[in-house]
Batch of 2 targets.
Target 1
Amino acid sequence: MVKVGLVVKSDPEAEQKAEAFEQWLVKKGTAVFRQRNRTPSRDIPGKKSEHSPPDLFCVFVLGGDGTFLGAIRWIGDQQVPVLGIKFGEVGFLAEAVAEDLFDAAQSILENDFTTNERMRLQVRVLRKKEEVARETVLNDVVINKGTLARLADIETRIDGQYLTTYRADGLIIATPTGSTAYSLAAGGPVLQPAVPGILLTPICPFSLTNRPLIVPDAVRISLRVAETASDLMLTFDGQVGMELQDGDTIEVVKSAHPVQMIPIPGQNYYDLLKAKLRWSGGRV
């Protein structure tokens, strides 16, 4: 029996659609494992956090980008194909609209689909040389200062070589997929998902010469917060986070486990980009 996952946004419209979709799947002899979207948390879950069954054929996500990112956390490192169905506002991760759900699902169940790999980042947090957290992100990992905190001093090294000490409200390390999320709002460039790079975007830097930087995806990025740091948060895909302490080190590398996203045939990334960013293409 084919087993599929179903992750649904906490929204009346999405839940109503999910009910009809689940009944449709069951009638086709498909086993459905339904997961309610998780609420973002300030705390990293323990090692016993719930993950999806190991033998899912695919996962359908009904919601926006937040729901999609939560679903990716649920899947973990498993190479399960994922299709996002848009139920939200501006979003870049949902490949289909609700009207296309059943047609797309029929093709997937008939094994008539392809996948595109999206790079993820593996993030480790070291405290006094001891690992205190390990997470994998699809969009970004962000160091943010609290409301009353001073500017953050973030010493940055690339493959062990000193780059600079960012003095800013924070720093975003983003994948090409994440380049259209928080990094874009902070003034970073858009990277096409197939570009093999990692983006460093400072948030409101003290020095205007600290600009966004793209580095190869094979590098190891090491970030160390100053000994005088206080009230700093580290967040992973905006889903979970942790408080940083003086002298903590964050190491970021490309993950060995990309996300397998199912594209909709005939849909073009640049058309999606123009639509989401409302580029008219004409004269102003």
Target 2
Amino acid sequence: MLGNGAQNVLPELVEYTFPPWIVGLYVAAVLSAIMSTVSSLIVMAAGSLTHDLYEQIYNPALNDAQAARLCRIITFLLAVVALLIAVTVAVVSPDRTIFWFAIFGWSGIAATFCPMIILSLFWAGFTERAAIASMLAGFFMTIASKFLLQELHAVGDYFAALETMPPSFLSALLVGYWVSKAWPDESLSAHYRDDLAHCR
């Protein structure tokens, strides 16, 4: 009855518990929330590609009209790519539920950015190079943990039980710490020495 995942529990509960007009309101609310989130993310990604990448690197003289036109084109292309990815996954791997994508996606986001933010907030010796290395380690460890480590014969079951978040998060923290120690920022070191001498 519930298909291939627990994501259908709430729709089934609403359908069998409430009258049709409440079911319609529920479906409309869910769809509107989904469309609002997806459209915001696509527009934000298109804006970042237009202003933060193309304008800053390739065309600093880009005016507002050109930027708006380019942003619309990129938004359309991103929407088409997202649709193709969704259709491809639905055909190739129909057992992948929305919960699978949500957990995998948010694990990747958390492992990419959270260790870097934590280290930058609580450790003055954390460097820019280490921040980049930490984000890359968290991102790629999320993918490796999900598709490689969970398939290993000896330890795959342990990684499957852990899911992707703990090993990815820990890897990003360790890489950030190690890179900061291996390649410290000389300007920061000089600044700390000056502060220490001033305090004495």
